[in-house]
Specification:
Layout: H1 9-32, H2 35-40, E1 42-50, E2 56-57, H3 59-72, E3 73-84, E4 90-101, E5 115-127, E6 130-138, H4 140-148
């Protein structure tokens, strides 16, 4: 929510730039395998919604998700495009996931080191200069077809 007293075009532009920089830092840290920096971009009560999965709330659940993902997958995000709302409180990113399936994840096909390229996107809510919600979407059927081929 914007503050009407400071809702100038310059304030909105500054908020948009800060949010874009936050989202880029989040993804740069992800690509570097720097989980500590990824976590530093989040609010303590972060909401994490993953395509085809349950909602996770809080840093500890986010860390557990990171550990599970690091065990099963090695991914790099490429061609990242970041879009930010006018007031900087929401953002979206579109990217391509280039990955390797390292260890079998429960309920999914057997891992044999398969590689995949998958278009994906994420939506963000920003609060106090940090990510308060991240919602990720991708086509699970497409991923299953790629790793099952």
């Amino acid at each position: 929510m914007t503050n009407p007293a400071s809702d100038t075009a310059a304030d909105r532009a500054l908020a948009r730039r800060a949010t874009a920089a936050l989202i880029r830092r989040y993804y740069e840290a992800f690509n570097a395998g720097d989980n500590a920096t990824v976590i530093s971009c989040l609010t303590p009560d972060v909401i994490h919604d993953v395509n085809q999965g349950e909602r996770r709330t809080g840093i500890e659940k986010f860390k557990a998700f990171q550990a599970r993902m690091d065990h099963h997958y090695k991914e790099q995000l490429k061609d990242i495009a970041v879009m930010v709302s006018q007031d900087g409180t929401r953002a979206a990113a579109e990217f391509n996931v280039h990955g390797s399936y390292l260890n079998t994840d429960e309920g999914l096909p057997k891992a044999k080191g398969q590689t995949y390229v998958l278009p994906a996107g994420a939506f963000f809510a920003i609060r106090d200069g940090k990510i308060a919600r991240v919602t990720t979407y991708y086509n699970l059927t497409d991923w299953i077809m790629q790793v099952s081929a």
